[in-house]
Amino acid sequence: MSRISFTTAAMPARKRIALVAHDHCKAFLLDWAERQRERLARHHLLATGTTGLLLGKRLEQPVESMISGPLGGDQQLGARIAERQVDILVFFWDPFEPQPHDPDVKALLRVAAVWNIPVACNESSADYLLGSALLEQAHEYRIPDYASYLASRQ
């Protein structure tokens, strides 16, 4: 089995922030986003279907919406992460309710870990992320060296 090598990439100052919430957590995410409205307004927001519609109305700002999570929205965001089009994932998931699309949720969290993007799974960690000095500045971070990986396969 080949070992993945790494390289660095630059995360932009204006972040692309994906916002996701399970049904029982949507109200928490909406309330949190409203409290963080000013910070979020300086960044590009993406969300899964219903969450995106609700956030756009509550925040009165554009939110790029995927389809609903269980219908493939989680996978759409995962693809965006792998394409380096998402910089931060805020995912309020419900630890008390099994989800019919748990494999998709696990895949989304896995791809976020692979591509080394910050992930917040609750209000406290989301507050810490948005309160970080790195939020509003460009910085370098480690990512898989996909070009090297492809070259090793030839």
From TrEMBL:
Keywords: Lyase. Its EC number is 4.2.3.3. The keyword Lyase applies. Pfam families: MGS (PF02142). Substrate binds at H22, K26, T48, G49, T50, T51, S68, G69, H101. GO terms for molecular function: methylglyoxal synthase activity. Residues 9-154 form the MGS-like domain. The active site is at D74 (proton donor/acceptor). InterPro entries: Methylgl_synth, Methylglyoxal_synth_AS, MGS-like_dom, MGS-like_dom_sf. It catalyses: dihydroxyacetone phosphate = methylglyoxal + phosphate. It comes from the Bacteria. It is an enzyme of class 4 (lyase). Catalyzes the formation of methylglyoxal from dihydroxyacetone phosphate. Belongs to the methylglyoxal synthase family. This is Methylglyoxal synthase. The gene is mgsA.
